[in-house]
Amino acid sequence: MRTADFYFHLPRNLIASRPLDKRDNSRLLVLHKNGDIEHKKFYDIIEYLNEGDMLVVNNTKVFPARIIAVKHSGGKLDILLVREVDKNGVWEIMCKGRIDGTVTIGDGVMAEVWAEGVKGKESRAKKFLRFLNIESSKVQDVLWQYGYMPLPPYINRMPDDTDKQRYQTVYAEYQGSIAAPTAGLHFTEELLNKIRNKGILVETLTLHVGIGTFKPIKTEWLQEHKMDPEYFEMKTSLLNKIQKTKESGNRLITVGTTTTRAIEAVFSMHQHGRDEISPMRPLFHGVDEGEMKSSFLTNQNGSIKGFADIFIYPGYEFRAIDGLVTNFHLPCSTPLMLVSALRGFRKILYAYKEAIAMGYRFFSYGDAMLIL
User: Fold this and answer.
1) pLDDT of residue 299
2) Residue 15's beta-bridge partner residues?
């Protein structure tokens, strides 16, 4: 399939720039397997979940990865921190324009920007930033003080303090993402408790959202696109619970495309007998390219850790999931291709056209879909 096949026109006024006051008051488009569509509120999702079903969420936590740096000339740089690459305070970054010398971040915190990669580890095309006068372990504290939440570029405003709470799920726990797993933004603690009280299992895993999730596809043909690896971790007990749920005839419903990719990556590995074991550094201590190529490991604490680089698009055979809670995605994006793989692009495109006609709010702060 061609990437251009996944294009659709979206009126700009339907891009949500801020969330609703109440998370679970978002609209919910329910897409059934036969193509039928229902229009609900998100809090109605409990009507479609049955006792014994399992709901799996991504409990990653977004950190304020966007910083505004000031050069000696007075010019400003808008920088996105992608990942820490070593213990010396060096981060891979994304920013427009040339970066040289030292810059000032926030209220006198100094940083030096590297325009070239670390020799022997990274591509010279990548850019790096080194924090000079703070310990590596203190960088996160500085970011929470001076940084901004990394809202997507289609939200045409500067992030504010409210985004530090609203661009975050209520169950966010483990810090490490540069974008929110947005399908989970609609849940409240009250709604989750109602779901649990109905006899539905609510389980968690962690996938730290990086550039792989939102990186644009630049290839003409889908199969030529390569996903950037994103770190994930889940308990081995979760796999056993998933298997028991499905053996009992109940459904596995994932919240978000990131949760889906983590589960499908593991189940795909098990189906093909790829139980690779390799050492891995702790999160935020940096990962070199050799380690990224090591698919998975099981540690002594009963967890599976690894890097998900699975690209799911039409033609993929799902190994585990039966349904998906998701937002409305960008044209020609990898999340749109994943949901199209689950229910077929024609049904997804029809649902999107109806959502547009009905005035649904799109993208990160927008409304939601339940694909059954």
Assistant:
1) 61
2) 362
Token code pair at residue 330: 């960008």
How many angstroms from the chain centroid is the CA of residue 210? 7
DSSP state of 73: T
Burial (CB count <10 Å: 0-12, 13-18, 19+), residue 337:
buried
pLDDT tens, 251-274?
A: 999 999 999 999 999 988 754 444
Angle at 308 between CA 304 and CA 310, to 5 degrees: 130
Give all domains of the chain, ordered by start, each with its CATH number. Answer: 3-62+164-371 (3.40.1780.10), 66-146 (2.40.10)
pLDDT tens digits, one per residue of 45-68: 999 999 999 999 999 999 999 988
Residue corresponding to tokens 């580890």: 121
How many angstroms separate the CA atoms of 170 and 173, rounded? Answer: 9
Query: Residue 340, exposed/middle/buried by CB under 10 A (0-12, 13-18, 19+)?
Result: buried
Q: Is 244 helix (H, G, I), strand (E, B) or coil?
A: helix
Q: What is the pLDDT of residue 283?
A: 29
Indicate the pLDDT class of residue 288, thresholds 50, 70 and 90.
Answer: very low
Query: What DSSP element (H or E) covers 239?
Result: helix 236-247
Residue 118 clears pLDDT 50, i.e. is over it: no
Q: Do 339 and 350 contact (CB within 8 A), yes or no?
A: no
Strand blocks (E) in the chain: 27-31, 37-41, 54-58, 60-62, 66-71, 76-84, 90-94, 102-105, 109-114, 127-131, 174-177, 201-207, 230-235, 252-255, 296-298, 303-308, 323-327, 368-371
